[in-house]
Amino acid sequence: DELRVAVVGAGRMGSDHVDRLAHHTLRTRVSAVVDVDVERAGTVAANAGGAEVLSSVDELLASGIADAVVLATPGFLHEEALLKIIDAGLPVLCEKPLTPDPESALRVVEAEVAAGRQLIQVGFMRRFDAGYRRLKETIDSAELGELLMLHHQHRNPEAPAEFTDEMVIHDSVVHEFDAVRYFTGEEITNVSVRIGRTTSRAGTVRDPQHVTVQTQSGLLADVEIFVNAQIGYQVHTQATFENGLVKIGEGSEFELTTAGRSGHEIDAGFVTRFRDAYDLEVQQWVDATLHGRIDGPSAWDGYATAACCAAGVAAQRNGTIEHVELAPKPSFYSSHTGSPA
Ligand code: ISE
């Protein structure tokens, strides 16, 4: 069997996924590349011999040339596309965020529930990172006793000039919201944000910021988010247990020692830092889809993290601890492996 995948959105993530599907993923091929900018779609499709070039989701769904979709347009375009894709009954791997706000995310969740089967996986690729998986196993096995705290550091080399305080939460910290939910298997109940000194290298964004969340059972997790850190792309986690500590994300295969210094390389960006995670995410999605299943992060995970983002932006603005409001979780998602119960 071979899954025919259409990639919608031929920007940075879309073109990376086309390359991955065409050259690094088994049991699939790219049947179409879709972008309003058909020239850009054409250039990307040329890397996946034989892929059709189309300019809209409507055209794609009418063509019948795809069994499944990878949606990699900007987040504000996701809702409209997802509702059409659900209506057509096609499985979709949707890049994060599911949608930019909890109201639209909930509409997508409701449409999926109404369709009666899970079609959406959200692209929280860190769940497929080897370090993340190992830490999750350590937590679940209780071999170090109970998990007490999580400390995250999320650093980017630099942010685009138009990056805003809101985007710090929506684009960047959304990954930690999902990570905390993944590690603990619990929902986040509140979010606060403190902002102190700001680097002279930031544009209008206040940077770094310190975010604290709490889960249903009371666990605290904090995040240093620093999007103009200059040093490269770093995603570290330190987990504090009753009987030990675990650090992930700091290692590297390649350690260099030279005159007067010793250390390892730092990735330039997320495409390389999480390459293995993206590869595994997409291969597992292809294989599950061929078996008529979705077994990665769900639309519910997309909705719950969107609710955390809304609380995070309010916390940034108000300087308060903001409660995260969630709609009741449809039982539809309870059997799902990736999500908190
Ligand atoms: C970007 O959208 C990502 O998803 C990256 O993983 C994150 O590190 C970056 O801050 C975001 O802008």
From TrEMBL:
Q: Which residues cross the membrane?
A: none
Q: Which domain of life is it from?
A: Bacteria
Q: What is its EC number?
A: 1.1.1.18
Read off the InterPro entries from this record. Answer: Gfo-Idh-MocA_inositol_DH, Gfo/Idh/MocA-like_OxRdtase_N, GFO_IDH_MocA-like_dom, MI/DCI_dehydrogenase, NAD(P)-bd_dom_sf
Q: Keyword NAD on this protein?
A: yes
What is the reaction catalyzed?
A: myo-inositol + NAD(+) = scyllo-inosose + NADH + H(+)
Task: Please report the stretch or stretches of sequence annotated as the GFO/IDH/MocA-like oxidoreductase domain.
Answer: 132-244
Alphabetized PANTHER family for the sequence: INOSITOL 2-DEHYDROGENASE (PTHR43593:SF1), PTHR43593
Subunit structure comment from the entry:
Homotetramer.
Q: What is this protein called?
A: Inositol 2-dehydrogenase
